[in-house]
Amino acid sequence: MTGLTKSYGKVTAVDQLDLHIYPGEIFGLLGPNGAGKTTSILMMLGLTEPTSGTAYVCGHNATRNPIAVKRKVGYLPDNVGFYPDMTALENLSFIARLNGLSESYAQASAKDMLHVVGLEREMHKKTSAFSRGMKQRLGLAEVLIKAPEVAILDEPTLGIDPKGVDEFLELIKQLSREHNLTVLLSSHHLHQVQRVCDRVGIFVGGKLLVEGSLEILAHNLQQQKGISTVITLDHAQGDTKRFAEALKALPGLRDLKVDGFTIELKTDSDTTAMAVRLLVNNGADIVSVSRNDYQLDDIYNTYFENCITTDNAYEKSKGFFKRYQ
Amino acid sequence: MPMKNPRVSSKDTNKRPSFPMQVLVRKEIAAHIRSWRFIILILLIVLTFGASLYVSSIGLKDAVSNMRDPDQSFLYLKLLTTTDNSIPPFHVFLNFLAPLLGIALGFDAVNAEYNNGTLTRLLAQPIYRDNLLFAKFLAPLAVVGTLFVALVMLMIGGGLLGTGVRIEPQELLRIFGFTLISVLYVAFWLSLSILLSIRFRQPATSALTAIGIWLFFTVFFPILVNLAIRPFLPNPNYISEQEYIGYNELILNLLRLSPSQLYTDATTTLLMPSVRSLGPISMEQMVGAIPAPLSFRESFLMVWPQVSGLCAAMMICFAWSYYIFMRREIRS
Question: Transmembrane residues, as ranges (chain B) (predicted)?
Fold first, then answer.
């Protein structure tokens, strides 16, 4: 994807998005509501025309040749719906037939898929009776039935209970590994993304702020903010101020706080071990050492803090009212 | 969770490919036939058909033996048009019911898919957008066409069994012409309601608008034309016959802007072979004319403008809906 831009009137929903997703990986598109995730996905599928820029999916231009793209990409929309008066099997084999499978084949593979996603007992139930989680599973089956090279899942875990989410994500991971499926997963639940994604991109206000694997992102953040280490000393230490002098010798020290029996350090690189050694050499009795590892939470918060979502939210609510005209 | 290889079963996707269009139309037809809405409509149509046929079969003997009527030899056409005025004949009924049929089958064609969240899913499949629109249009037409043909065949069959009178080839042509025009009329209302279903997000809004348009054309339009013309109409006693005919022609032409007027003109002419003009005829024109039925070809030529008008109206609606649907944002 290069320079993908979509504007609705004055508002730019997606601004100059450049993104490359490698085959076989699970990529997590993270962002708050209204960040432009769904819009980007629709542009990738050729369902929305980009204002400028082009998206290439499996070597096909998504705007010029959407049929070729749709043949290779399975898409699970964020609020997936099915024909309520058809059974799960009928819904699924209808989609299979739209993808060019013959009637008997569509039936057979629809049955297979329902086994894969664990809906084999609900096969002949009408989908109007389905719960949200069951619908998501059926949606996943529908994505898989076309044997896609790329699966795009828009908020796939929304509205499923925690256990269901676990199973669902495990299923996605497993399928991706087994069939070398490229998965693009959009979500605002960082913990879920953290569990399955190889790489993530953080998407705020129509802009992709960072992308990379979680380790790299965490590392970058550490570079930026420094590593903080908290060391607690034994109470029988007496005056702890004397250790401060010794710790000042640490390389790349940014901040040092000594408060009673706890010492807080902030350094450029990981110097926890060195600090402990220094303290022990100075005769300190250390009770506990904890090093702050940056989790996705921190990454997420850091990037979301410095973004403006207000006018985006306004635009969304306007769209909401427009719909009821 | 049992795991199977999802790719195994879909390896030969290209062996015997099924065309997406065909699959879509089949699904639409199945959905219509299974729906309560359609069953109720069928019951309504069959009931009115049965009732008007019953009334006409009672008065049939008088109608056929009426020597002054030039159409008396067309038994099967009489079966469709004779009435004792207690209920209108079938083609007049259909003038009211066909719009209802078209509207009921099309008012939620696109917006229901939209609201169910199935539209995004459907369009993410490798099909062209217009395939969906064509399927939404063709499937109800196929169903309605089958229904009408079946009814008409039943009528002919019943007539053959009951009276034993041979059916003229001309009668058969006229009856099928009538069926065709009725389907065309339904097609116009269907394309109008599909247009509204794309335009409005709520099925209720689009249904109400469609019914509003239907009421306007059947009830208010003739009144409106009358009201609009009357202030300009001089006293008929003070104008020449020529002018009088001119005004009459004007009113008729204005009325023909309404599709139901077009349908009435077309079906009346086709079902009553003795109808030789749809406007007023002067005495000079009538002099020397033998009251004899027209041939099918002549009747058909006479309604050709009406038929093409209906066709054009339908196509405008369809092209418009095509235009707005292709450009529509697909997100729910």
Answer: 36-60, 92-112, 133-155, 175-196, 208-229, 303-325
**Gap from B132 CA to chain A (nearest CA, Å):** 11
- pLDDT at A255 > cutoff 50: yes
A2-205+307-322 homologous superfamily: P-loop containing nucleotide triphosphate hydrolases (3.40.50.300)
pLDDT at B137: 94
List where CATH 3.30.70.980 sits in chain A.
Answer: 226-295
Chain B residues whose beta carbon lies within 8 Å of the beta carbon of residue A140: none
Task: Tell me what the mean pLDDT of segment A160-179 comes to.
Answer: 84
Name every chain A residue with its beta carbon within 8 A of the beta carbon of B5. Answer: 178-179
Q: Do A300 and A251 meet the contact criterion of CB atoms below 8 Å apart? A: no
The stretches of A50-131 forming alpha helices (DSSP H) are 66-72, 88-98, 103-116
Q: Is B212 on the interface with A (CB under 8 A)?
A: no
More confident residue, B125 or A306: B125
Contact A33, A108 (CB under 8 A): no
Q: What are the pLDDT digits (tens) for A2-57?
A: 445 555 555 677 777 777 888 888 888 887 777 778 888 888 888 887 787 778 88
Nearest to A47 among B7, B35, B330 (CB): B330
- Chain B hits for A71, CB-CB cut-off 8 Å, are 126
Instruction: Report pLDDT for B281.
Output: 65
- Which residue on chain B is closest to A152 by alpha carbon? B124
Smallest Cβ–Cβ distance between B7 and the set A102, A120, A179 belongs to A179
Whether residue B10 and residue A145 make contact (CB cut-off 8 A), yes or no, is: yes
> What residue ranges of chain A are covered by domains with CATH 3.40.50.300?
2-205+307-322
- Quickly state the pLDDT bin for A295 (edges 50, 70, 90): low
Nearest partner of A203 among A17, A78, A1, A44, judged by Cα: A17
Query: Residue A53 and residue A62: Cα distance in Å, rounded?
Result: 11
Give domain A226-295's CATH number out of 3.30.70.980, 3.30.10.20, 3.30.390.10, 3.30.70.20: 3.30.70.980
- Do B22 and A163 contact (CB within 8 A), yes or no? no
